[in-house]
């Protein structure tokens, strides 16, 4: 078991952010690969309600919300879409790379429309994701947390 697997998501995120505190990132510091290989495909897959493509952006033991592992992550996304059509957009507010770990954070806006009809509602969410560099050099999300934005 690696050190990364033994750390709780909160500890891991805190550790990653504290290490990077001496060189804070701004939105302009977000690497192109993070946008092109992670964030843009995430929103495209989510808006297309494609849980399998979303799961491909996560490590096999990833944690997001209350879901752990790809099968739970797929089920969680599918549950999101069961009663609502959801369209989301968002961007990184910052990004920090520390060795084979990276942390990205941002804000998204989602419009939820009940499939049964009714009024749409807009929700804004702050999120933080921890990415791990894989043996082939690609990056996958291993931890993700979000909360409603004020």
Keywords for this structure?
150 residues, alpha+beta, Nuclear Transport Factor 2, Chain: A, six-stranded mixed sheet, 41% strand, globular
Structural notes for this entry:
By secondary structure, the protein is an alpha+beta fold. The protein has a single domain (3-143), classed as Nuclear Transport Factor 2, Chain: A (Roll). Helices cover 33% and strands 41% of the residues. The chain is built from five helices and six strands; from the N terminus they run ααααββαββββ. Strands 2-1-6-5-4-3 form a six-stranded mixed β-sheet. Strand 3 and strand 4 form a beta hairpin. Residues 1-7 and 9-27 have low confidence and may be disordered.
SSE layout and pairing:
Elements: H1 3-6, H2 9-19, H3 32-47, H4 51-55, E1 58-64, E2 67-68, H5 70-82, E3 84-98, E4 101-114, E5 121-133, E6 139-148
Parallel strand pairs: 1-6
Antiparallel strand pairs: 1-2, 3-4, 4-5, 5-6
Low-confidence stretches: 1-7, 9-27
- Give the biggest sheet: 6 strands, mixed
Oligomer: single chain
Summed over residues and divided by their number, the pLDDT gives a mean of 87
What's the level 1 CATH class? Alpha Beta
User: What structural class do the secondary elements suggest?
Assistant: alpha+beta
What is the rounded distance between the termini? 38 Å
Strand order of the largest sheet: 2-1-6-5-4-3
From the spread of the alpha carbons, the general shape counts as globular
CATH topology: Nuclear Transport Factor 2, Chain: A
CATH architecture: Roll
Number of helices, counting only DSSP H or I runs of 4 residues or more = 5
What order do the SSEs take from the amino end to the carboxyl end, as H and E?
HHHHEEHEEEE
Q: Share of helix among residues?
A: 25-40%
Strand content: 35-45%
Q: For the CA atoms, what is the radius of gyration?
A: 15 Å
Number of domains: 1
- Per DSSP E runs of 2 or more residues, the count of β-strands stands at 6
């Amino acid at each position: 078991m690696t050190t990364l697997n033994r750390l709780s998501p909160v500890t891991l995120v805190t550790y990653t952010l504290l290490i990077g505190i001496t060189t804070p990132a701004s939105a302009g510091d977000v690497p192109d690969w993070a946008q092109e290989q992670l964030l843009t495909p995430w929103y495209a897959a989510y808006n297309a309600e494609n849980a399998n493509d979303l799961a491909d952006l996560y490590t096999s033991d990833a944690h997001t919300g209350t879901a752990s592992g790809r099968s739970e992550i797929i089920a969680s996304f599918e549950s999101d879409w069961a009663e609502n059509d959801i369209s989301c957009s968002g961007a990184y507010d910052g990004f920090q790379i520390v060795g084979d770990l990276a942390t990205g954070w941002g804000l998204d806006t989602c419009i939820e429309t009940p499939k049964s009809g009714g009024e749409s509602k807009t929700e804004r969410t702050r999120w933080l994701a921890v990415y791990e560099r894989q043996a082939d050099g690609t990056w996958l999300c291993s931890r993700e947390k979000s909360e409603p934005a004020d």
